Structure prediction request, 199 residues.
Amino acid sequence: MKNKKSLKIIELLKKNIRKKIQEKRNSLSIKYREKSSILIAEKFLHSGYYINSKNIFIYHPVRSEVNTTIIIREALKNKKNIILPRVYNNKLELYFVTDLSTQLKNGAYNIMEPVTDLCKPAKISDIDVVVVPGVSFDKKFNRLGYGGGYYDKILSCIPIKIKKIALCFDIQIIDALPASEHDIKVDTIITETKIYQPL
Prediction:
């Protein structure tokens, strides 16, 4: 009973943080988000994670998120493979995408996702590096998602050796997030001013 109560408290705390951080992120000017997205993308594109990977599992940005299409376009130009998710049957399906203009459609939660007839399915074993979305992250590499649990499910199936990278704005980093046992941590966080890595 006590455990159920503490889980409820954690979920309530997460909900409050989620709302607060999304409001903060939404209030950033378009110009600031664009400029910062370029800085964040450059840091990722110069990292060993990117350089040493062939197959990148990443997400298409929605609303006020960091603009990941900068990375996607550059990776495709560099002949790397891009894997994007699609929400289906309460889980994420993975597909290789080679053309953002023709192979995507507006899907669940208004997120652009692969058109299954036009894209080759991908497997977890194909992935070399993961770029993980999130509302907020803390300095212990905990991640707060959007509440659907889709990424927690898929990240729990990804081998530990596959690095999980978070891209976010400085205002999305807080000192400590309430974390549950099933929450999966990220390995590195890249913001417009910093790269957080375990010591």
